[in-house]
């Protein structure tokens, strides 16, 4: 069991001992610290919260709501929602911050508090450090009885989010409806079961088959939308003779597609395809984290734009997008960020843009995928002994490959002509992740093996 305290929030497994797991005491402590920092002496503070469909969601929700009202904060509770919906709502409500109760793609035992600033974006590293420090100190003052906060339950944001997607200038509802798509959705027993079918209907998709549609948090399979977890969706797409399959994670900020023959479109290529469409309509730059496929760079250059890599993590992608005025960005895990929609990964706007792109393509989704280069990413990791300092290890590796282009913004990324390898430590585990990419699967694997050997040699 585990409790992970990071600058962007707190994540852990439910139950067990305080400080070691995500217990009610930990939930209250961190909610109080965040609420206190957001309030910061204001005469009135408003925070939006929403949750995914996890088993523990209602329990966590009540603790967070009561803690915030105990601080004198006014809470706008969206109930069962999605991460991007809460992000949108913070801006629409002109609120001071937000809390999303979700552990994203983690299994059912986990839950988390994801913390947002007044822009509906993940809090900065500085604010995150303040939250952790205040939570540890316990120096928190609660409101007197006549200054307690209030709670407003607002279920209108399902429709508001859907309306925003349908009305987005680059989403073409008429073109989507005209294609008569039959779609299978794997909602993995969370709020995607509420949001994705409703969005598809609003986009004119009449035939929608939903798998794992009961919102109970008892995930029918590992909820991370990776190929090995999507066999049910793949089989059902073929069985139903559907045009495509759609998979989201429990909080609906990651998006993956399945082709009409049951093969994977490729989670890495969700962003590539959406960016290809957006760049065909709007010239500009793109950003993805440096562990994502180089296919985005290829597509960007094809459209006359410039590509910029960022450190891993949504907040880093957003920062880089703002710096370079990117028109589209995201992460290779199926995270789409459309800046003039909102600066957050959003599977719903991703669906609207992808289906518009597919509607404008004469053939099916498998044919669309064939338009993009085939790169293979090999994902590996090495466990570290407790207390190992990776800095000298990375420095020795950097020296060994000094004749190749190197990026040290986030760990160590080395480029070999069109291939690359990215080494970085995990924020959540005592490991080094080794991601490598090549046009050939064996080459990608061999690059990873070579670097894993280097790490062992220099450890």
Q: What does this entry show, briefly?
A:
The protein is of the alpha/beta class. The chain has 15 helices and 20 strands. It is globular, with a radius of gyration of 22 Å.
What is the CA-atom radius of gyration, in angstroms? Answer: 22 Å
Strand percentage: 15-25%
Mean pLDDT: 96
- Structural class assignment: alpha/beta
* Helicity level: 25-40%
Number of strands: 20
The tally of helices reads 15
* Terminal CA distance: 28 Å
Spans of at least 5 consecutive residues whose pLDDT stays below 50 are: none
Largest beta-sheet characterization: 7 strands, mixed
Shape: globular
What is the spatial order of strands in the main beta sheet? Answer: 1-2-6-5-3-4-7
Question: How would you describe this structure to a colleague?
Answer:
By secondary structure, the protein is of the alpha/beta class. The model has no long low-confidence stretch (mean pLDDT 96). The protein has a seven-stranded mixed sheet, sandwiched between helices. It has a five-stranded antiparallel sheet with strand order 16-20-19-18-17, covered by helices on one side. It is built from 15 helices and 20 strands. β8, α7 and β9 (207-211) form a beta-alpha-beta unit.
């Amino acid at each position: 069991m585990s409790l992970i305290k990071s600058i962007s929030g707190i994540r852990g497994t439910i139950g067990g001992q305080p400080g070691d797991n995500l217990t009610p005491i930990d939930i209250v402590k961190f909610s109080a610290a965040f609420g206190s920092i957001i309030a910061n002496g204001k005469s009135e503070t408003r925070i939006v919260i929403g949750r995914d469909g996890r088993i523990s969601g209602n329990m966590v929700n009540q603790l967070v709501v009561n803690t915030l009202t105990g601080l004198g904060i006014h809470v706008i509770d969206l109930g069962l929602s999605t991460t991007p919906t809460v992000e949108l709502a913070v801006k629409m409500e002109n609120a001071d911050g937000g809390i999303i109760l979700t552990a994203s793609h983690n299994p059912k035992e986990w839950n988390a508090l994801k913390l947002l600033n007044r822009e509906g974006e993940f809090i900065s590293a500085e604010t995150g450090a303040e939250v952790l420090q205040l939570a540890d100190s316990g120096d928190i003052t609660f409101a007197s009885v006549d200054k307690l906060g209030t709670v407003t339950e607002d279920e209108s944001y399902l429709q508001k989010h859907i309306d925003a997607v349908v009305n987005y200038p680059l989403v073409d509802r008429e073109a989507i409806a005209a294609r008569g798509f039959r779609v299978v959705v794997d909602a993995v027993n969370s709020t995607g079961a509420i949001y994705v079918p409703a969005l598809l209907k609003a986009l004119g998709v009449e035939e929608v088959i939903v798998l794992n549609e009961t919102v109970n948090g008892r995930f029918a399979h590992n909820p991370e939308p990776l190929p090995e977890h999507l066999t049910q969706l793949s089989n059902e797409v073929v069985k139903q003779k559907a045009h495509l399959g759609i998979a989201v994670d429990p909080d609906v900020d990651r998006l993956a597609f399945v082709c009409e023959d049951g093969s994977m479109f490729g989670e890495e290529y969700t962003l590539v395809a959406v960016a290809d469409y957006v760049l065909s309509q709007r010239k500009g730059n793109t950003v993805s984290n440096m562990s994502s496929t180089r296919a985005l760079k290829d597509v960007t250059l094809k459209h006359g734009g410039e590509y910029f890599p960022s450190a891993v993590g949504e907040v880093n992608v957003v920062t880089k997008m703002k710096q370079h005025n990117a028109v589209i960005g995201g992460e290779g895990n199926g995270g789409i960020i459309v800046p003039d929609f909102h600066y957050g990964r959003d599977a719903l706007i991703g669906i609207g843009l992808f289906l518009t792109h597919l509607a404008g393509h004469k053939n099916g989704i498998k044919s669309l995928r064939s338009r993009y280069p085939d790169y293979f990413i090999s994902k590996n990791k090495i466990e570290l002994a407790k207390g190992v300092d990776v800095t000298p290890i990375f420095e020795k590796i950097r020296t060994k490959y000094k004749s190749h282009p190197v990026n040290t913004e986030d760990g160590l990324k080395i480029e070999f002509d069109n291939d690359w390898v990215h080494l970085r430590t995990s924020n959540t585990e005592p490991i080094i992740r080794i991601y490598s990419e090549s046009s050939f699967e064996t080459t990608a694997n061999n690059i990873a093996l070579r670097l894993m050997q280097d790490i062992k040699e220099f450890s």
